[in-house]
Amino acid sequence: MTDFSKITPCGGSCWDCEHFTSGKCKGCLSEEGRSVTLWKEGCEIFACCKSHNAKFCGLCQKFPCGWLEGKITQWDKDGIRKLKELKEIYEKENT
Q1: In a designed cystine with 79, which of 5, 15, 57, 72 is the match (CB 3.0 to 4.6 A)?
Q2: pTM value?
Q3: How much is the pLDDT for 43?
Q4: Taking the CA of residue 73 as centre, how many other CA atoms within 13 Å lie in the half-sphere pointing to its CB?
C-alpha cells in the first residue's frame, strides 16, 4: 500500500526531495505549505488543496484545472499525469 501521509498536495514526496533529505527544508506537510528553501511565503498549491479539502490535487473535485496546469508544469511537465496516476492508486487502495 502507498503511504499517502507522505504525499504532498502537488503529488510529490518530501522524503524523495533533495532539499528535505539534506535538511535544508522541513517539508511542506509539516510546515503548512511553507518551505524555507522553495516557498517562503507558502505554496499556492498547498493552500489551494487546503481550501478545497483535498489531500492532494488529484483528489480535488476540480482536478485537473487550468490553474494547476499552469503552476505544476513550471517544474514538472508530467505533473498532471502523475497526479492522475496517484488518484487511481488512492481510489483503488481506499475503496
Answers
A1: 72
A2: 0.84
A3: 85
A4: 10
